[in-house]
Amino acid sequence: MYSDISSNDDDLFSPSQSSSKKDQTSSLANDVEKILKETSEGKIDATLVRAKLAHALYDTSNNFVFGIDSFQRTIFNALNQLTNNAYAYNFYADVLEESIAKRIVIYDFLTSITRSASNEKILSFLANKMDINIDAFFFNTYVNSMGEMLDFVINYNIDIYAKVCSQVGRSPIQSIVSRDVNALDPKLMNSDDFVISSFAAIRKSLGFEY
Q1: Are 157 and 127 in contact (CB under 8 A)?
Q2: Is pTM beyond 0.85 here?
Q3: pLDDT at 12 > cutoff 50
Q4: How far apart are CA 137 and CA 118, in angstroms?
């Protein structure tokens, strides 16, 4: 019944089992060493590359599947239900304010570059410093065309912004509607700055100046 247990205590001190494990470990080590000796360096490199590629694919797939941010939808839907969809409109207006303000800044930068491009001395200076051919054709092909597309997108989004604000009785920010880059509030382009300034206003209202 107890075939694995000896009837004699003398074999408790026998090295037979430990020797067996050592023999297995030694055999495995020998097998690995044999494989490495029989495998060329190129094949080893190829094996490592395949292993790394497989690991990268697995890791990327795992992050894609388990990188869950569905809680954002839950919060969004819950706030919409509580505000009868007013949250969605206000949130969209905030997003539009930030994106339009950033586009206006970029458009102003492109416009200033285009104005400078009309100066041949500036074009020559840029070409020499950057070691590439920068001429009027370059600006017309890349910079000017980008500016035209950006101009259309800004106007299009301002129209949407005005309609969204009207839906919730919110006054549009005039500097955005008029595309006045100098009057834009920097806090529009950085939500953290906006929140921090709100906290500062709360502190001030409570009697704390700093």
Answers
A1: no
A2: no
A3: no
A4: 11
